[in-house]
Specification:
The complex is a heterotrimer of chains A (314), B (513) and C (371).
Chain A lengths: L4 H28 L7 H19 L2 H25 L4 H21 L20 H4 L4 H6 L3 H19 L1 H11 L1 H6 L4 H27 L11 H11 L4 H23 L6 H19 L2 H7 L15
Helix pairs in contact in A: 1-7, 1-10, 1-11, 1-12, 2-3, 2-4, 2-10, 2-11, 3-4, 3-10, 7-8, 7-12, 11-12, 11-13, 12-13
Chain B lengths: L12 E10 L2 E11 L4 E5 L6 H8 L7 E6 L2 E2 L5 H6 L2 E4 L11 H6 L11 H14 L15 H14 L4 E5 L7 H16 L3 E6 L2 H7 L2 E6 L2 E7 L5 H9 L17 E11 L5 E11 L3 E5 L6 H9 L4 E8 L2 E2 L5 H7 L1 E4 L3 H5 L6 H5 L10 E2 L2 E2 L1 H15 L15 H13 L5 E5 L7 H16 L3 E6 L2 H7 L2 E6 L2 E7 L5 H8 L9
Parallel strand pairs in B: 3-8, 3-9, 6-7, 7-8, 13-20, 13-21, 16-19, 19-20
Antiparallel strand pairs in B: 1-2, 1-4, 4-5, 9-10, 11-12, 11-14, 14-15, 17-18, 21-22
Helix pairs in contact in B: 4-5, 8-17, 13-14, 14-15
Chain C lengths: L5 E4 L5 H25 L4 H13 L2 H25 L8 H18 L6 H30 L3 H22 L26 E3 L2 E2 L1 H18 L1 H11 L1 H6 L4 H28 L4 H4 L3 H11 L4 H20 L8 H22 E4 L18
Antiparallel strand pairs in C: 1-4, 2-3
Helix pairs in contact in C: 1-14, 2-3, 2-13, 3-7, 3-10, 3-12, 3-13, 4-5, 4-6, 4-10, 4-12, 5-6, 5-10, 7-8, 7-13, 12-13, 12-14, 13-14
The chains are: A mainly alpha (314), B alpha/beta (513), C mainly alpha (371).
Chain lengths: 314, 513, 371
């Protein structure tokens, strides 16, 4: 039962989807404050390499996680500075950070005489519950079969969702992302809110990247994350900027990563490349729907997303 | 009304000798004002009289340069609107500070320190509902702001203040965005609030409203208080005269003898504004060749929609615009320019001129499609320069340097450049909005002379302005626009400031004072 | 929040500042790179010397640099003309790839008896049309539905990439070389459709690219259409006021941008690659083009030297492996250059001063409804 194709696919989907969960929720928090961060890919990679390095050096997985989050946040501070303080183009800043972050991550991975490339991980996140629980049909693998970070991702989603929609600070963020001028009139410090949420996004992106290097791949490569960062940016839209939906769409695309194998087993022949296009095509279709009409506004983006805000302009 | 003698209860708000200026220009000078508890006090005045500034001072948005403010008899200084609200003073601005995509309940809760860390949507909604009902101001707390009508949005703004238990509420031109019925509902609510002992300041330029809802009225003109009275005792004529002032420059130019045929004929025009309301509501005017027709009115009565509807920048919902007999109502902007409609918009840098382009380029904006500016697809830089040099010389535009973005020119020079371009194109109609607003004496004179020259050349000039001096100095005929319709039409010789002031404030001439 | 400095928008930036900032960004990035190299135990002098040597030190090296620059000139122009009008076309990658697909499609099936001139023109044009088409998938929704082009162009990049990979690696489509049995390859372009080389690997594509940059500059500054473009880029309202049809203009610029990127793809395919090779087309040329455009401050002529600089960096990268330094160093430099340039742009647009007295508020009259 637990070895069926469906079960294996679902379990794999959860595994492959988890980095997307972190990165997408992070970007949701950032975009909810009105800042568009196209640097997610770079931040994930930096998180991946720094997490791997930290664990490699010390043997501690959790230290790796913390270092990864700090690395992602550090890179994102640059974006926050560019976007919030200097108010320059968020698009260009984000892209610059992706290029910079990607280069830096590859560089760190290959630098020095004891380069990380090709080195096997010193430790990997593994399932935390005993095998006896995991063997329970269906429920076992689905509920008990995961490693600590997967459970952490569920907590993050729950906390983020509650934060955004059921707390006053969450309301504040949403207000800032919709209409910073009115939020400022209500006494909110837009600058501070934006800095914080950009950095949260960076930290979560770093965490997502670390999941690749600390749980999914056996050794360090130049790019263990594929285009996960870009997919996360698309997923934010598909999830309508809501953390719970992000969980489902992330798993859906985690499944897409696995689907090729699954389809082969089931002898369904859909080429991998065409499947890989799917998240992006869906994102565009979602954009087209969201762009028009009244219904669009309910599911739509924070209104001030991507627009630089200046306190003087009232 | 309280039983105790008035002298024992301090006014809710008292202002003494308030001065406030911006960049050296006085917005309020030596203003004394007092608001009693439980009173609805109207602030009356034209645009630029200083009403909004005064309110902003009371609401904590600005700090006065000098003077004292007393709240309930105690000297008070507000550091910010947040401060003021905490002390119970709140303002509903003309441009709402509401967040479109959030719900009513969420907007009310925003920035409110009394709402705890946990946000209970249901609690907030119940509170909002209860508040609405108490003041006969029902709103759906779960609705998002964009789903509400403007009148309902205004209610939310008021509810925001009531949620914080504001004792002093300031409403800045609240009825500008309301239908008459909504206005009635607002006045009812205001009286309920006053009955509770709250004090309200109501800013307006409409006399009938002031009469309908206020207990006392203070009139401001050019930053100073020119009069205060019990509303019941005040005559509309007197109020209008105070608003507008008696000492105005009388027209000294000779009326034009040779007025020609009708050139611009507007009939029953209806134009919707951005909100979907009929800003121009069945309006008809005729402008003849060689005539300056002036339209007076407080801003927000449809002037923008009228001008842009004629010119083609806004869609005409119904009615017609004829130019020398042909129907041009729904032609494109470019066609209308070519047919001879020139337009000096109120927004000089945002529309009339391209702020980042240099002066030479800007002076060619209307004619660049024709020779000598362009030969086929190619531009002739030389033609740009030559023409620009001519215009700069002829109109005395100063501060121009090659390559310098035009936005760096002073207001007066900007307007001279704009006028220069508009009057030198091939045209038969000139529509000008507030052409001398914010200009110094020299530039004002240049612009006015130019408009008179237009008239002498046989152009049909439509002058839309809030400046009565200007209108009286230039117009052959004067109209008043009020709530999207023409409220009055008279030859210049019969126009007085008082008469215009009444019409601008909504008093129809057939009504008795 | 109290202000320690006053930030004031600048009127006219001095010409030397406009030159200083890009140059300064490069120098700052090089300094940062030197720091990274030093920290990881490398000799930055050796590294930079090797880079300069590879890129400029020999005839062949210089030719390779120019080869690398050619697509960057085009993607740079593509980004510049769009950005100047606030059209955020970040889909240069995808437009380049689809241009490659289109060009390869034409170049594979032209009859070998077609005169070379016509064949070359056909394939190059196909690239431009292909790029414009790919851009239209984002442009049309933007103009008619108001759909945000940042996300759509970004997504289209990945769709094009996967499409390209599918055609050669994932299927036996006509784009795939039926004779390559070892490893999937693109089908070779017929000889008479290839761009002739003239100096090592450098082909005529360079001239096409330079010509496009010059034409772009020329159209923008000297033609009536370019004038309208500049007006729209400055103020939409003013453009409408003078009778320009803004949506049409936005659409045409967006398509032109796509065409330029598509041209880059076609030049690669019928030039140095000789076939549609997914790996060699997936090099981030579109995004690097954005860096080029930003550094050149959106000026088409300035793009040429900047593209050469970036091309030099790209060219020098692989050579670093031989001295034990990751070629990713180049990416770090490019990213850093852009970050500094972006931040430096702030200094061009604004002046920083110490306050003499507390700045006053904006007058309330500004709030009164107007225009």
């Amino acid at each position: 039962m637990n070895d069926s194709v469906v079960m294996l696919t679902i379990v794999a989907a959860i595994g492959l989807g988890t980095p997307l969960v972190f990165a997408t929720v992070g970007e949701i928090l950032t975009e909810r404050s009105g800042i568009l961060n196209l640097g997610v890919q770079g931040m994930m990679l930096i998180g991946a390499v720094m997490g791997f390095w930290a664990t490699f050096q010390t043997g501690s997985l959790w230290l790796g996680v913390i270092v990864a989050m700090i690395a992602g946040a550090a890179l994102s501070v640059i974006h926050a500075f560019n976007s919030v303080t200097l108010r320059v183009s968020q698009i260009v800043s984000g892209l610059a950070l992706t290029i910079f972050g990607t280069g830096l991550a590859i560089f760190i991975g290959r630098a020095g005489s004891d380069a990380l490339v090709g080195r096997p991980s010193r430790a990997i996140f593994e399932s935390i519950f005993p095998q006896s629980l995991i063997d329970i049909p269906i429920v076992g693998p689905l509920i008990f079969g995961h490693d600590a970070l997967i459970y952490l991702s569920w907590v993050v989603v729950g906390v983020a969702s509650y934060y955004l929609f059921h707390t006053r600070p969450g309301l504040t963020v949403r207000a800032v992302g919709e209409d910073p001028a009115s939020a400022e009139s209500a006494g909110i410090n837009v600058t501070r809110v934006r800095y914080i949420h950009v950095m949260l996004g960076g930290a979560l992106a770093g965490l997502g990247g670390a999941y690749f290097s600390l749980a999914l791949v056996p050794s360090w490569q130049d790019n263990p994350i594929g285009s996960a960062g870009w997919i996360a940016i698309a997923l934010v839209i598909l999830a309508s900027w809501r953390p719970w939906r992000a969980l489902w769409v992330a798993y859906l695309f985690g499944a897409a990563g696995r689907i090729n194998f699954t389809f082969q087993t089931l002898q369904i022949n859909i080429p991998a490349n065409l499947l890989a296009m799917l998240p992006f095509i869906l994102a565009i279709v979602a954009m087209l729907i969201l762009a028009s009409g009244k219904r669009g506004r309910l599911l739509g983006a924070p209104e001030a997303l991507g627009i630089p805000y200046s306190r003087e302009e009232r | 009304m309280p039983d105790r003698p008035e002298s024992e209860i301090p006014p809710a708000v008292e202002l003494r000798n308030i001065d406030k200026s911006f960049y050296g220009v006085f917005a309020n000078a030596d203003v004394d004002f007092s608001l009693a508890r439980g009173e609805v006090h109207a602030l009356l005045g034209e645009n630029g009289a200083g009403k909004s500034t005064l309110c902003s001072v009371i609401a904590g948005l600005y700090r006065p340069d000098s003077g004292d403010m007393l709240l309930d008899g105690k000297p008070t200084v507000f550091k910010s609107p947040k401060d003021a609200l905490a002390a119970g003073v709140g303002m509903v601005y003309q441009h709402f500070r509401l967040i479109s995509n959030l719900t009513v309940a969420e907007n009310i809760a925003l920035g409110n320190p009394e709402v705890g860390l946990r946000l209970s949507q249901s609690e907030l909604e119940a509170d909002a509902k209860e508040l609405g009902e108490r003041y006969d101001f029902p709103v759906d707390p779960t609705a998002r702001i964009w789903q509400l009508s403007v009148g309902q949005q205004q209610r939310v703004e008021i509810l925001k203040l009531l949620y914080r238990d504001a004792r002093i509420l300031i409403l800045d031109e609240p009825t500008a965005v309301l239908t008459p019925q909504e206005g009635e509902a607002l006045f009812r609510a205001m009286r309920i609030l006053a009955g509770e002992g709250r004090s309200l300041i109501f800013v307006s330029h409409k006399l009938h409203e002031v009469k309908a809802v206020s207990d006392r009225v203070t009139v401001l003109r050019e930053g100073r208080v020119v009069g205060a009275a019990e509303t019941a005792d005040a005559e509309p004529r007197d109020l209008a005269r105070m608003m507008v002032g008696k000492d105005l420059v009388l027209p000294t130019r000779a009326p034009n003898e040779s007025i020609g045929e009708p050139v611009l004929v507007v009939k029953d025009l209806v134009v919707e504004d951005d909100r979907g309301l009929d800003a121009v509501d069945g309006l008809s005017i005729t402008v003849n060749a060689g005539e300056i027709v002036g339209i007076a009115g407080v801003s927000g009565n449809g002037q923008r929609e009228l001008a842009q509807g004629i010119v083609g920048l806004m869609k005409v919902k119904s009615g017609s615009v004829h130019l020398s007999g042909s129907d041009v109502t729904s032609l494109s902007v470019l066609r209308k320019i070519k047919l001879g409609i020139a337009y000096v918009p109120q927004s000089r840098l945002g529309m009339g001129l391209a702020p980042g382009l240099d002066t030479d380029d800007n002076l060619a904006l209307k004619q660049y499609r024709e020779p000598p500016f362009s030969k086929g697809p190619m531009l002739s830089a030389k033609a740009f320069q030559t023409k620009a040099a001519e215009l700069i010389e002829a109109f005395d535009v100063r501060g121009v340097r090659p390559g310098l973005p035009i936005r760096l020119l002073s207001g007066g020079n900007l307007q001279k450049a704009l006028i220069a371009r508009e009057v030198t194109q091939d045209h038969c109609v000139m529509i000008a909005r507030s052409p001398t607003r914010g200009l110094d004496v020299g530039a004002t004179a240049t612009v006015r002379d130019e408009l008179l020259a237009e008239r002498d050349r046989g152009i049909a000039v439509l002058l839309i302005s809030q400046d009565l001096d200007e209108l009286l100095a230039l117009s052959d005929r004067l109209l008043v626009i009020y709530e999207g319709q023409i409220a009055g039409d008279m030859p210049a010789s019969e126009a007085t400031a008082e008469r215009l002031g009444l019409l601008m404030a909504g008093q129809r001439e057939d009504q008795s004072a | 929040m109290s202000r320690r400095f006053i930030v004031e928008p600048r009127g006219l930036a001095p010409w030397w500042l406009k030159l200083l900032i890009p140059i300064g960004s490069v120098i700052a990035a090089l300094a940062l790179g030197a720091l990274f190299l030093a920290i990881t135990g490398n000799d930055w002098v050796e590294v930079y010397t090797k880079m300069a040597d590879t890129a400029f030190g020999s005839g062949r090296g210089f030719a390779e640099t120019l080869v690398s620059s050619t697509p960057l000139i085009l993607t740079g122009v593509a980004a510049a003309i769009a950005f100047k009008m606030l059209v955020w076309n970040i889909g240069g990658e995808g437009q380049l790839m689809f241009g490659a697909i289109a060009a390869a499609g034409v170049g594979i099936w032209l009859s070998s008896s077609t005169p070379a001139v016509i064949a070359v023109i056909a394939v190059v044009l196909a690239g431009a049309v292909g790029g414009a088409f790919w851009a239209s998938l984002a442009a049309v929704p933007k103009v008619y539905l108001g759909t945000n082009e940042i996300i759509t162009t970004l997504m289209l990049n990945f769709i094009a990439l996967n499409l390209m990979q599918y055609l050669v690696l994932g299927s036996f489509s006509p784009w795939r070389d039926p004779e390559a049995t070892q490893f999937p390859q693109g089908r070779p372009i017929i000889d008479n459709a290839r761009l002739p080389e003239f100096f090592h690997r450098l082909d005529w594509g360079l001239f096409i690219a330079i010509a496009v940059a010059i034409v772009a500059w020329f159209v923008i500054s000297k033609t009536r259409s370019g004038f309208e473009y500049r007006i729209v880029g400055d103020s939409f309202d003013t453009a409408r006021y003078v009778g320009i049809k803004v949506p049409r203009k936005v659409l045409s610029v967006f398509l032109a941008s796509g065409a330029a990127a598509g041209l880059a793809g076609s030049i690669l395919v019928v030039g140095i690659l000789g076939k549609m090779d997914p790996r060699s087309l997936d090099l981030g040329l579109g995004f690097t083009g954005i860096i080029v455009a930003a550094l050149a401050r959106l000026n088409p002529i300035a793009i040429i030297p900047v593209a050469i600089l970036m091309g030099a960096l790209n060219n020098a990268g692989p050579a670093l492996q031989s001295i034990g330094v990751p070629s990713a160093t180049v990416k770090i430099l490019q990213g850093a250059i852009l970050i500094f340039a972006v931040a430096g742009e702030f200094l061009i647009m604004n002046r920083i001063k110490r306050p003499k007295r507390v700045a006053d508020d904006v007058p309330a009259e500004a709030e009164v409804s107007s225009a």
